[in-house]
Specification:
Number of helices: 6
Oligomer: single chain
Shape: globular
Number of domains: 2
CATH architecture of the largest domain: 3-Layer(aba) Sandwich
Strand content: 25-35%
Structural class: alpha/beta
Low-confidence stretches: 415-423
CATH topology of the largest domain: Rossmann fold
Helix content: 10-25%
Number of strands: 25
CATH superfamily of the largest domain: Alpha/Beta hydrolase fold, catalytic domain
Strand order of the largest sheet: 11-12-14-13-16-17-22-23
Distance between the termini: 37 Å
């Protein structure tokens, strides 16, 4: 029986991380019930897995794009459900895939439901983070530390500075995937990478000014200005960079704050914003041990905190504001609303916004495991990120396409038409 069962993955057993899969099974008995499983180990050694029960049709076939899961990690028709619903074998683990050289290796398998759950067939899917021909090189220019990713071909290509998160070190996943879609991307670490200090007490805009100048000088870059993409704490850094520094034409702000947070911000050795802090007494600890910090931040619009607010009306470029309404890290939607109102009050229309009602804090490139909670560097404890898994996954698919369209629209390359994203 096992030799007759076939598990097929399209477009193939090797594809980009952000590509959807068509998963089909053939060679089963008519109406046979089986379990489909997915299993992967991240670069920290954490094991993630999912399982869903399906009933074959009269021809002994299953198509995840057509047939509903009857039980397991998810229920209903969900073509990419096995990837989205993979959960760690221990609590508060976030799937770690930061090095772009290492593919996300997923083992898909089909198992009998009766008896001991004998495996009928297994296929390995390598979900790569860099398309063939994408260049990757470490950057150690002055005090700038990071990686530069370049698409294959001569270009010219639009340039993007990826700030990712504030957790120390850096993640290459988003940058390498953007490069695979036709952008020159520099991802930089602010601390904790290479020879950088492990902890910092202040942030200097001069660092990002140098990173922008470095990026603009790259041979394949054709855009006059650069784009910024951020998430979480780096969202307010992106706002400050766009507001105070030149050559920023397009900024993507994802679930950040409208005020400078955590650390004071300096430029040319002068402090331009004090930090907005949080009240530890307003942190809620759930039964799982994860903290809800949504209401813990001090109000940025309170009179005593107004110096932390970033004057985004100064920005010359365009903004894409993205908020997850079920974010439990902080109130991203309220911050978005404040920024939209502020720009309108100043007569500005250089922005667009999108919000996702049931998404959580960590909006990343699509088709990775959903993360309900994980360790938070600033809190020093696990934090609940919020969101409903299926809705969050759908938001990531929609947002990833929107980010690329936004950058292509506002990072002009002297009239050269860029290739569209193949999503």
């Amino acid at each position: 029986m096992a030799s007759q069962v076939r598990l097929r993955l399209l477009p193939g057993t090797r594809c980009l991380f952000d590509e959807p899969l068509q998963v089909t099974v053939a060679g089963l008995r008519s109406r046979q019930v089986v379990a489909l499983r997915a299993r992967s180990t991240d670069e920290k050694g954490a094991v993630f897995s999912s399982s869903a029960t399906y009933r074959a049709d009269g021809s002994g076939e299953i198509d995840l794009g057509r047939d509903p899961s009857l039980s397991g990690s998810y229920v209903g028709v969900e073509p990419m459900g096995l990837l989205r619903s993979m959960a760690a074998d221990t609590a508060h683990k976030r799937f770690q895939k930061t090095n772009s050289l290492n593919p996300h290796v997923v083992k898909f398998s089909v198992h009998e439901v009766e008896g001991e759950g004998r495996m009928l067939v297994e296929v390995t899917n390598e979900r790569i983070l860099m398309a063939d021909g994408v260049g990757r090189r470490p950057v150690k220019e002055g005090n700038i530390r990071g990686y530069l990713f370049t698409p294959p071909g001569e270009g010219p290509f639009p340039a993007v500075l990826d700030l990712y998160t504030f957790g120390g070190g850096l993640s290459e996943k988003r940058s390498s995937l953007l490069a695979s879609r036709g952008f020159v991307v520099l991802t930089v670490a602010l601390y904790g990478h290479d020879d950088q200090p492990r902890n910092i007490k202040e942030v200097h805009l001069d660092y990002f000014e140098g990173a922008i100048e470095f990026l603009k000088k790259q041979d394949k870059v054709g855009s006059k200005g650069v784009g910024l993409i951020s998430l979480s704490k780096s969202g307010d850094l992106a706002l400050s960079i766009a507001s105070y520094l030149p050559h920023v034409d397009a900024t993507v702000w994802i679930n950040g704050c409208c005020a400078n947070t955590v650390l004071p911000l300096y430029y040319k050795k002068e402090k331009i914003h004090p930090p907005l802090l949080f009240d530890a007494e307003k942190v809620i600890v759930t039964e799982s041990g994860a903290c809800i910090t949504k209401d813990a931040m001090h109000s940025p619009w309170a009179e005593e905190n107004k110096a932390t607010l970033i004057p985004i009306e100064r920005a010359k470029g365009r903004f894409l504001f993205v908020a997850a309404e079920a974010d439990l890290n902080w109130d991203s939607k309220a911050y978005l609303d404040v920024m939209v109102e502020r720009l309108k009050r100043h007569g500005k229309d250089n922005f667009e916004s999108v919000s996702y009602p049931e998404a959580g804090h960590y909006l990343e490139p699509p088709y990775g495991p959903y993360c309900p909670s994980s360790f938070h560097g600033v809190m020093g404890k696990p934090v609940a990120w919020g969101g409903e898994s299926r809705s969050h996954a759908a938001a990531e698919v929609h947002l990833w396409k929107k980010i690329q369209e936004f950058f292509r629209s506002h990072l002009s390359c002297d009239g050269v038409t860029q290739n569209k994203a193949k999503l």
